[in-house]
Automatic annotation (TrEMBL):
Family listed: Belongs to the BtpA family.
Pfam families (alphabetical): BtpA
Protein name: Uncharacterized protein F13E9.13, mitochondrial
Classification lineage: Eukaryota, Metazoa, Ecdysozoa, Arthropoda, Hexapoda
Encoding gene (name): LOC115878150
Top-level taxon of origin: Eukaryota
Length: 272
């Protein structure tokens, strides 16, 4: 918790998600990397104007996703370029993070190290699952050894548990609580609780359970809206993406009024 608080000192920190447009080599790439960078910077500026507590970059538009073993170097190179631009734009006291889909945890760590980012969002950290891109094996041991090898211990790892868009039938006898405890035992810096898919709300009863049983920071990773914000105020962090988009749909552009309204409501709750 101490490392988390060094980055996020405010109650229930809001991390604004930037869904990066499709990168080179992926089916929806539009052959213009500079326009991707310009849009990312514009969205980061909207978040800064509305005083979000952190920013998270993710290559969400690279559908259909492939596993990291099948990545071409262009994905890591592109996300490194984008991350560099964002880090230059965002003040150093605003934490920035990255997730590389799908399960590009080592790639994310490498990018964070060289681009001075502060955290990564990691898939498959403990226990295996089946995602829509295939089988994902647990990777905490390899990931943290790699973090040590590249001297990136200052990059925090926030691990999804019982991850959205996935089947957990093979670990159905392992509870959410046990999964969180395994992530803690395997030295995660925080756990992320989600709904079943992008934009779907997490179960706030599960949040309360994790807060009472885990010593790790608990972040909500999907489905937070201005309407249900109060259900999640006990979380240490809220990763918000879809709700900040026009009509609340992840593929749309960020709507600055949506960002403004949520942050205003959160700040009001914080001051009570």
């Amino acid at each position: 918790m101490l490392n988390f608080r060094k980055l996020f000192s405010k109650k229930c920190a809001v991390i604004g998600m930037v869904h990066v447009e499709a990168l080179p080599g992926t089916p929806l790439f539009k052959n213009n990397l500079q326009s991707i960078i310009s849009k990312v910077k514009k969205e980061a500026e909207i978040y800064l104007e509305n005083n979000v507590d952190g920013i998270l970059l993710e290559n969400m538009h690279d559908v259909p996703y492939i596993q990291s073993k099948d990545f071409g170097p262009e994905i890591t190179a592109s996300m490194s370029r984008i991350s560099t631009e964002v880090r230059h734009l965002v003040p150093n006291d605003i934490p920035c993070g990255i997730q590389v889909l799908s399960c590009g945890n080592k790639e994310a760590l490498a990018i964070a190290k060289v681009c001075s980012l502060n955290f990564i969002r990691a898939e498959g950290y403990v226990f295996s699952h089946i995602g829509d891109e295939g089988f994902t094996d647990a990777n905490a041991g390899k990931l943290l050894r790699y973090r040590k090898q590249i001297s990136a211990e200052d990059v925090l790892v926030f691990a999804d548990i019982k991850k959205k868009h996935s089947s957990h039938a093979i670990t159905s006898d392992i509870s959410l609580e046990e999964t969180a405890k395994a992530a803690e035992y395997f030295l995660a810096d925080g756990v992320i609780l989600t709904g079943t898919s992008t934009g779907y709300p997490a179960d706030y009863n599960e949040l309360n359970m994790l807060k009472s049983t885990s010593r790790l920071p608990v972040l909500i990773g999907s489905g937070v809206t201005v309407e249900n914000l109060e259900n999640y105020i006990g979380a240490d962090g809220l990763i918000v993406g879809s709700h900040f988009k026009t009509a609340g749909f992840w593929q749309n552009d960020i709507d600055k009024e949506r960002v403004k309204k949520l942050m205003q409501k959160l700040n009001q709750i914080r001051s009570e």
